[in-house]
Amino acid sequence: MTSFTTFAITILLFTTISAIPTPQPFKKIYAFGDSYTDTGNTASASGPNAFTYVSNLPYGRTFFHHPTNRYSDGRLVIDFVTESLSLPYLPPYHNTKADTSHGVNYAVAGSTAIPYSFFVKNNLTLDIQSQSLQSQLGWFNNFLNWQNCKSMKTTPKECKAVFDDALIWVGEIGANDYAYTLGSSVQSKTIQNLSIRNVHGFLEALLNKGAKYMVVEGLPATGCLTLSMSLASEADRDDMGCVGSLNKQSYDHNTILQTKIRDLRQKYPGAVIIYADYWNAYRSVIKNAPKLGFKELYKVCCGSNGAPYNFDVLATCGAQSSSSCNDPSQYINWDGVHLTEAMYKVVSESFLKGAYTHPPFGSLLSSKTYLG
Predict the structure, then answer these.
(1) Which of 32, 103, 149, 349 is most buried, most CB within 10 Å of its CB?
(2) Catalytic annotation, residues
(3) What values do phi and psi take at 158, rounded to 5?
């Protein structure tokens, strides 16, 4: 065989192999959480009271070029996750006309881990979202009932059909629980216990239904959000330059949450449960901001010129007196509570390709390929 023929065969084989489509590890995603994951379930009228302009520009300006009811200038972590898995963006649950064959997003901005009844009992219902993680579970259970999936014990075939090719993505949830009780007589420890208990119960409910592949985000470094920085004493700062007391609160919350996740791994050895370390991913961005292209760590891109962070809680992004920066990619904070697309992109990469998922996200993909 001549060298030319050998070369030609090699090229032909390489081209043929390259042309074979790589199978998708997951065919659908079901997502849950709050505004950091919500892709459109919340319209202005029902969203967080201080951020009522999400249905208007400049929200959505960077990628979609129009508002999508996402609380950012563009894509969220869940959007980058769907892109990485070659899936379309998840439609919000409330869009009843959407194609749901690749999954649904049940996350709602302002959601809590603790049921709304707790806040009613403690007279803390003023301007808060009535939906909770339990509401989202109820919506998902309606879908499972429609699929005749009751539990893996009673309807294993039907539940297997739902979950075998599905990734369950539980976005951060619980930050609102702390925020809604700020300044009240309710102790932070009470919120911690109830919030984690409800997240644990939610995860176990899904595992009992047959969930096999799950990613659970911890709380971000909430003390680094502009709203937190603007309200706290300047004496309350940590080594990130953020509100130390709030960052410790979130860190402690995550520590206990990880213990609960480890318990679930032991109880459900057939499931793969990944913890996404939002807190340390955020910290890494703060510590390496210049290398990542971020020039503004605490100042908002979209706000109303309130010193020193361009933030006024009474005139937030989208208000008549507000304006947005020329280049959101240089900012971490978008509107004071929510992050820019650039920040969400870096965080998503730290989850999907970096060191901030435990075990690594790649191990979940390997397990999916191996187990089928």
Answers:
(1) 32
(2) 35, 335, 338
(3) -65, -40
Asked whether the bond before 21 is cis by omega within 30 degrees of 0, the reply is no
Lowest-pLDDT range, 205-209, 214-218, 312-316? 312-316
Residue written as token pair 């390997």: 366
Stated pTM of the model: 0.92
For the chain, give every domain's residue range.
24-288+346-371
Phi/psi region, residue 33 (left: phi>0; alpha: psi -120 to 50; beta: rest), is left
Collapsing DSSP states into helix, strand and coil, what is residue 283?
helix
Cα dihedral 193, 195, 196, 200 sign: positive
Nearest alpha-carbon partner for 312 in 226, 224, 243, 183:
226
Find the largest Cα–Cα distance for the chain. 85
The CA-atom distances, in angstroms, between 21 and each of 18, 86, 155 are: 8, 11, 33
The 10s digit of each residue's pLDDT in 23-72 is 678 999 999 999 999 999 986 445 555 688 899 999 999 999 999 999 99
